[in-house]
Structures are given as C-alpha cells and as structure tokens.
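I can't quite decide. Please look over this sequence plus structure tokens:

:::
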Amino acid sequence: MQLTILGAGSSAGTPVIGCQCATCVSSHPRNYRTRCSSMIALDSGQTILIDTGPDLRIQALREKMTRVDAVLYTHTHADHLHGIDDLRAFCQRNRQQIPLYAKQDAVDHIMAKFGYTIREPSHFWDLPVLGIQAIEAPFEIFGQIITPIPVVHGRIMILGYRIGNMAYLTDVSEIPEDSFALLEGLEVLLIDCLRYESHPTHINVAQSLELVKRIGAKQSVMIHMTHELEYETLSDLLPPNVCVGYDGLKLNFN
C-alpha cells in the first residue's frame, strides 16, 4: 500500500495570506503546504482518503487522482471537512456512491451541515452521492482492517487511524493511555507537529518528538505544520528516523 500526503499544512496553509515571513516567501517547494489530508492507494486498486480539506481539488489535480472509494474522517473542523463537495467529481466520473466513515458526533455534524451530499445513487450525478457510517471499533473495507485511534484535540475527542503497520494522527493535543496499545509495532507514523511553541489544541515539535520516541515507529513523519516551521530548519533538528512531511510525499507500508 502507499500513502501520499495530499497536504501537510495547518488550517491557514502555507504561505499564509499576507505573510512575509521567511517560510511564506521561501522558494523551497516543500515550504508550500496545502491543508492537511492524505490518500491511501490499496494494492487492490481502491483509493481511500483521510479527510477532505478545502484544498482537495488542487490536491487531486496535482496527484492526478481519478477515483475515491472511501473517506475516513478524523473530525469536522473546516480544514479537514470543507472540501467534501469536491467528491462529486469522483462520483460523476465513476458513477458510484462514496462511503464516509466517522465518529457519531462527526456523522451528526456532516448530516446537519452537508446533508445534501448524503443520498442514494440515481440518474442525477450533479451533486456528491455519499453514504455515511458511524464507527467506534475496527472495521473492514476492501479487505483491509481499519482501526480508529481515539486522540484528544483540545476539548474534543477525535480519531486517528491505523491501517496495517501505518498510523495517521493529526490534530493531537494528547494521546489517551489506552490508545498507545493500538500503536504498537508500527513501521510508519504520521503525527501532528504544529509549531515550536505550545498550543492548547495541538502538540508542538518537542511534544511530537516525545510521542515519536514512546510509540517507536521505524519511520515518523511530521504533519499539520504552520508557517512557523521552515522545512530545512526543522529537518536539521530531527533524528534520523523522523522527517518533515511535505505535499506529495509518498510512503509505502504493509
């Protein structure tokens, strides 16, 4: 299987509108970050998204995406959800309903705010045609076991996901003790890393590295970064088994 980071940026993206900091004016392509999401290509041919941020159209064109077969939602903040309408292109192209998976509170939010997308297939494909299912425990799609990983994001509980020996944890302020057991034996870990200073709803660089050390994945990748984190500067601070994520980075896992 292969995971592609569609976006490694935080809610504002990088460059930030109107900002003239060193990262925002940098010509280094890895300092250009769209909003945080990823794509998983299964060996069986299906494509699974983790979140649909507001940059989904740009990301899909960049990666030459032609299909989406399911979406796993971590939570419903705008930078992780508000590209949902762009799923209609894949519904139109492939003439199929796309199933969404999320916590019950996220399902309720999507139904309330984007209820027009939740509909059964018909002859009309000018709107997204999506199904939705609440999840709590591990479940199977396309022959793969998907394990939800409960994590804390400020005052709310959201989900990370484990597929095989890869785990994806964005927007983390704390990992509950029970969730660490679900993160054993990882080859690849993608983990929140907002900025250098502390933040009430995200871990910072130092906290990310502490969690990376405890979880012990063979390779860890920093995601959901603000413009405060310049690619080369942060890369120089990281141990050999940790790297700075960037838009378009591809990671293979079993």
The longest helix spans residues 205-215. The first strand starts at residue 2 and ends at 7. The chain has one domain: 2-247. The domain at 2-247 is CATH 3.60.15.10 (Metallo-beta-lactamase; Chain A).
